[in-house]
Amino acid sequence: MKQIFFLLFSFITLALVAQNKRDKAIHNTIYPLFYENYEQAKAEILKLEESYGYETNLKYLLINRSFEENDMEFFKTELTTLVRDYGFNLAYEPETKIYYEAITIGALAVWFKTMYLKNHVIWLDNNFLKQADLNQLNALNYKTRMFNKVRYEIDQKITVDSIQKEQQKKVFEDLAFSNLAELYALTRKLDIYPTGKNFALIQNDFSILEYQNFGIERNFEKSWMLFEPFYKKAYLKHALDYIIYKNYDNYSFIHYKNQRYGLISIFDIPEIYQEDLFSIPTRDQEFSNNVKAEFNWEK
To answer: How many CB atoms lie within 10 A of CB 197?
Structure first.
């Protein structure tokens, strides 16, 4: 629970840390506006796209708000684009989405069916070989949630001694890393860290699997070593934002009480977790400075 609370806090903190211009626009401007000022958030995303191209994941988040705000022309336009150009697939769409009922059996069902059948074929024609990989990526979210559910049920219902508990813990940690290896194999195959900007829209976020392994101390560094080259390539091409690096520092603090990239401050951490620290040491300041220069991270 401590780890979960800490990471949730890190996503909503407004403390200024090293970021590039795209990161600042997303995390310091757009996200804070999402539920405060829909029109301004939309305008900022459109402005961001002028410099960095279509922001698939932001638009996928935004259509929820468009539907809530009854901005139906924009909702229809963006959903059409996501279907035609980025592989939005009704089969992967969570039923919890606020517009799900409307586009399947509600007021927008007739429009959506016509639009979807027309445009999904266009995406398939241009991206036919991506189907199996996209299915696998979407399935990772469900697999991880089921893993967590099973582990919780076993922890609650099966009583074991301390030795057995440690053995059980190791089995689960090994299985978590084995699941991550599936994502790594696919990443190696594609030769990219797949995101909405460089591959296709992934409607069921698989980062839960990565963070599950980051949260396991003996899986943490080896997981990062596998994916860091792909994160870097995606980040430099604006297919990923800096939060993956900030969360590395978050988990580094959890495990070692230090950080690598210099992206978190003591003020990012709830007081109850600060212990006696007045600052968070950076392992290698020269390395941190070099990364910040390469990534154009500024205060």
So the answer is: 20
Measured CA to CA in angstroms, residue 72 lies from 41, 76, 87 at distances of 16, 6, 21
Average pLDDT over residues 64-74: 98
The residue to which tokens 């191209």 are assigned: 53
Rounded Cα distance between 248 and 181, Å, is: 18
Show the CA angle centred on residue 166, arms to residues 161 and 170, nearest 5°: 145
Residue 200, CA distances (Å) to 28, 125, 268 in order:
26, 14, 33
Please identify which residue in the block is written with the tokens 């539907």: 67
What's the CA gap between 72 and 3, in Å, rounded?
39
User: In one letter, which amino acid is 240?
Assistant: L
pLDDT score of 13 more than 80: no
Write out the two tokens for 182: 């599936």
Rounded average pLDDT over 205-229: 97
Q: What are 75-101's pLDDT values in tens digits?
A: 999 999 999 999 999 999 999 999 999
Determine if residue 275 is left, alpha or beta; phi over 0 gives left, psi from -120 to 50 gives alpha, anything else beta.
left
Cα–Cα distance for residue pair 202/185, rounded to 1 Å: 17
**The whole model's pTM is what?**
0.92
The predicted structure's pLDDT at residue 75: 98
The answer to whether residues 253 and 35 touch, using CB atoms and an 8 Å cutoff, is no
- Report residue 113's pLDDT band, with 50, 70 and 90 as the boundaries: very high
